[in-house]
């Protein structure tokens, strides 16, 4: 499922009254997803980063505590979790799903007091988690940011490579086709932990 729909984007493009341009609009939505996800700190998993729901396999250095924060959130499900200081991650090191609780919004995996594991064992890449994270339902502010950016790209796609263009007998400066500042403001609350302005904080 895409981050937004062409129909939602047409609300920002009053020049469009039908579906003839939907293929182009869908392509611009996909490009926005990649750029927005990168700016928000979403990792690349063999393809462009995405804010859509996707599967991740990540390794963590256990800290000996009961809390583990996943790199991507919201996290909707955990497929498997292993603790193995030998980094083999076979069936003998699998943590039972009943031993931990997932707090989706924060991406927090908390071991229960009844867990036989007791702690995320200290060690380099001692913890392996396969999980699903990202948005299956896109928050309205992200859709709004997507709408503004897609409309900007759509209206200015003929001016790529130009700094100035002639219009109505004069010359106007062409806007940068990168992420708009107002789009970044819409995305800012959805940046992953440790990211500020598209860079590690």
Task: Indicate the topology.
Blueprint: H1 6-10, H2 22-40, E1 54-62, E2 67-69, E3 75-83, E4 100-103, E5 108-111, E6 123-133, H3 140-156, E7 164-167, E8 170-173, H4 181-187, E9 195-196, E10 199-200
Antiparallel strand pairs: 1-6, 2-5, 3-6, 4-5, 7-8, 9-10
Helix pairs in contact: 2-3, 3-4
In words, what does this structure look like?
This protein is an alpha+beta fold. The protein has two domains: 6-49 and 137-193, no CATH class; 54-133, no CATH class. The protein is built from four helices and ten strands, in the order ααββββββαββαββ. The chain has helices at residues 6-10, 22-40, 140-156, 181-187, and strands at 54-62, 67-69, 75-83, 100-103, 108-111, 123-133, 164-167, 170-173, 195-196, 199-200. It has a three-stranded antiparallel beta sheet with strand order 1-6-3, with no helix packed on it. Strand 9 (195-196) and strand 10 (199-200) form a beta hairpin. Helix 2 (22-40) crosses helix 3 (140-156) and helix 3 (140-156) runs antiparallel to helix 4 (181-187). The longest helix has 19 residues, at 22-40. The protein is elongated and about 60 Å long. Mean pLDDT is 88; it is low at 195-201.
């Amino acid at each position: 499922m895409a981050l937004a729909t062409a129909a939602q984007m047409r609300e920002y493009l009053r020049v469009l009254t039908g579906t003839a341009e939907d293929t182009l609009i869908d392509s611009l939505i996909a490009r926005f997803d990649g750029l927005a996800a990168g700016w928000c700190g979403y990792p690349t998993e063999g393809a462009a980063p995405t804010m859509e729901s996707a599967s991740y396999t990540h390794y963590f250095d256990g800290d000996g505590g009961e809390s583990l924060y996943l790199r991507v959130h919201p996290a909707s499900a955990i497929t498997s979790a292993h603790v193995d200081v030998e980094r083999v991650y076979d069936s003998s090191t699998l943590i039972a799903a009943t031993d931990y609780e997932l707090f989706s919004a924060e991406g927090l995996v908390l071991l229960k007091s009844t867990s036989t594991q007791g702690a995320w064992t200290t060690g380099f890449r001692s913890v392996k988690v396969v999980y699903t994270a990202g948005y299956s339902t896109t928050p309205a502010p992200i859709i709004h940011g997507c709408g503004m950016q897609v409309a900007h790209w759509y209206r200015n796609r003929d001016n790529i490579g130009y700094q100035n263009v002639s219009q109505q007998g004069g010359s106007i400066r062409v806007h940068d086709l990168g992420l708009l500042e107002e789009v970044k403001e819409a995305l800012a609350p959805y940046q992953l932990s440790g990211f500020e302005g598209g860079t590690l904080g």
